[in-house]
Amino acid sequence: MSSFLQTSLSHQNFHSFTMLFFTIFPLLLSLLFIIKKWYFNTKKNSPPSPPRFPLLGNLHQLGLFPHRTLQTLSHKYGPLMLLYFGKVPVLVVSSSDAASKVMKTHDLVFSDRPQRKIFDIMLYGSKDVASCAYGEYWRQVRSLSVLHLLSNKRVQSYRRVREEETSRMMEHINKSTSCVNLSELCSRITNDITCRVTLGKRYGEEGGVFPELMLEFGELLGSFFIGDYIPWLNWLGKVNGFYSRAEKVAKHLDDFFEEVIEDHISGSRFDRDVSVDSEESDDFVDILLSVQKSNAIGFSIDRTAIKGLLLDMFAAGTDTTYTVLEWAMTELLRHQTVMQKLQDEVRNVVGNKTQVTEEDLVNMNYLKAVIKETLRLHVPIPLLVPRKSMEDIKVNGYDIAAGTQEGEVVLDSCLLLLSMNWC
């Protein structure tokens, strides 16, 4: 009987010890992890960071206008500020000096891009220039854009398109017998010029749903989705219809670009080679198809890459341009003395001619100043496309850790341009 009791007690003691071990051991591991993390964080000279909540990080502080929130926070924490969007460390850069270090001095280190699910859906798996990861593919498509699409000679070859669309807009204003919606006109002319340069013809009021598609595309691409920063909330994108809406718009745009490309392939101009130095106003689709056919860059591009590049041209060349035009006219109407001075300059330069030519613009220094001041006060893109650091580096004395898949660098262009250093 006594041996039975001893055996029972020993089993109970062993069970108690086991339970105690498996209770205390995880707690000790957690404590060691916290101490280690605290030690390395204190040893590292990280940028200042506001207090954050567990899981959420600083997401609760962003509000409806993140660029304004970041502006307020940067006044308190400085031009280099470390936030956490969920578990994602985000470095916010908001001074010209710090931006110069990121975008010029250490440009190679910060050349990568963080990947987002919305990029995969709407930008062909990030096969465009703006969102694709740094590497050989990015270098090749960027070189293709700079040398073949946006060279000085190529831009000059579209002068006739710009002049024709400007004359068309002025004719519309002259014929109008009622008030003119200036915002609508600015949007239409930038869209029409971009369409003619990129696709070969206008897709405005005659083009059906394309302008509306691009508007929704821009809205979705600029949306903030919490699943990118808190992965276990990724299911919300399916529940609230965000992903299905993005897929629907992406499908419509893909069908549209497919139709445009097929029209160009079936056209007579497809058999003709397009030279990089050609002064003919071939549209971007012509050029890209010719490059694909002749393998002119020593790097094969497929149909998906062509569509990704076309999307970039519209994303970068429509809303940004018309927003600047709209704000420039708004500021001129607010400041009548500036308006009068600019009108005097235009009349003095143009003289008795009925139209302003691109040669006249060279001599309009005050006009250039007005445009630059408009860009400074009303930035078309308040937050630039985020970057990702590829290795540990020091910026302005702070230690910036290598960007893992989550690390981001956000440049607040509003603060960069509103800084007193530019005034």
TrEMBL record:
<dbReference type="GO" id="GO:0004497">
    <property type="term" value="F:monooxygenase activity"/>
</dbReference>
<keyword id="KW-1133">Transmembrane helix</keyword>
<feature type="transmembrane region" description="Helical">
    <location>
        <begin position="14"/>
        <end position="35"/>
    </location>
</feature>
<keyword id="KW-0408">Iron</keyword>
<dbReference type="GO" id="GO:0016705">
    <property type="term" value="F:oxidoreductase activity, acting on paired donors, with incorporation or reduction of molecular oxygen"/>
</dbReference>
<keyword id="KW-0812">Transmembrane</keyword>
<dbReference type="InterPro" id="IPR002401">
    <property type="entry name" value="Cyt_P450_E_grp-I"/>
</dbReference>
<keyword id="KW-0479">Metal-binding</keyword>
<keyword id="KW-0472">Membrane</keyword>
<protein>
    <submittedName>
        <fullName>Cytochrome P450 71A3-like isoform X3</fullName>
    </submittedName>
</protein>
<dbReference type="GO" id="GO:0020037">
    <property type="term" value="F:heme binding"/>
</dbReference>
<dbReference type="Pfam" id="PF00067">
    <property type="entry name" value="p450"/>
</dbReference>
<comment type="similarity">
    <text>Belongs to the cytochrome P450 family.</text>
</comment>
<dbReference type="GO" id="GO:0005506">
    <property type="term" value="F:iron ion binding"/>
</dbReference>
<dbReference type="InterPro" id="IPR036396">
    <property type="entry name" value="Cyt_P450_sf"/>
</dbReference>
<dbReference type="InterPro" id="IPR001128">
    <property type="entry name" value="Cyt_P450"/>
</dbReference>
